[in-house]
Give the backbone structure.
Amino acid sequence: MKSQTEMDSRTPENTRPIFRHGRQLRVLIIGGGVAGLTLAGLLEQRGLEPTVVEQAPSYGDIGYVIVLWPSGSGILKGLGLYRNLLEVGIKFTRYNIKNDKNQMLHSYSIDPVTEKYGPIISTYRPDLINTLREGVNRSNIKMGVTVEKIEQNRDEATVTFDNGNKETYDLVVGCDGIRSRIRRMVFGDFPLNYSGMTGWGFWVKNNSTPPGQITEYWGRGKFFGIWPTKGRLSVFTSVQAPPHTPDPPENRIQRIRKEFREFDGLVPGILEELDNPYEIFRDDYNDLRMHKWHKDRVILIGDAAHPILPHGGGGAAMAIESALVLAEEICRVDSKSVTQAFENFTKRRKKRVDKIQSQSRFIAGLVLANNRLMFSIRNFAFRLYCNRLFLRSWGKILSEPI
């Protein structure tokens, strides 16, 4: 935990706690993941004392890979946590795209991007969570707590917790993920948009891939991606499938091996290493577009508001960006103007979020091209796709203000 001296040294100049009738603005953050912890740290830095509630009883060691764009990792510099991130993460230098026969479609150097904007960093999700926790007062994080009800009026929101306690807040921020209970509770049922893809994620000890290099295998309607992290490899796969296709754990390894049996290169060795199906994460890949992210005194950020398909790799960075923008807007208003802060947040974020979501859908369509003609055209085009165009597309994303 950072000392008070260190925390004070990171407090932006000319920022003060915001008070309402002689007391501090009351903020509840629901969800202690990437978005929630980042927001809490940024608000504490600005003199507030938000409460974070997380339904998990403790932070465990189960999770997947997080790839942080510079637009996200750079925000940790302002929290004094960037060095901690570098200690648990790996900087990428090269991005390799191969077909299922292990033939290189294109290999891109990432150095021109990272030299201009900062490194692209991969890390184990629990390591990132532990890093973000260092920027938050531990007494402000309440574990094993679930919200059962939210009642709002023009001035405040009253929250009922699972233990029966009620507390009143000036604003509530839902950061509880893609299947957000707060979204359903406050906004009603917004069905997720199924991408037509399902897949599995898992970790292996195989160290045959070069450090700092992403390697992806693009097959016909199938994808097998490998990302190094400290001490192990993260594997993310996807295939086309009807929604809610049964996937009993006891048959999971057999199904994965069958789906990718024609893949060459590093894939056969990695598949051979699989031994515990209950350590393999599986999910359908969805996103969601909401016209409005706030209602009265409640606002959603991160995957609760704008989940990104994983093929774009920007979900965590977008969540951290949104946490920063919301913290800035909250600290410009008093309790009477909270909804104005929400409106300003939306104006600043909506266009960028929509663009990244569209890009992730486009990339997913390329990755999982299944039609024989489109598959051939895609592979031919990527063999010719020069670094300049690749770097230009990255530059557009990373140079935009957040």
Notes: The mean pLDDT is 88.
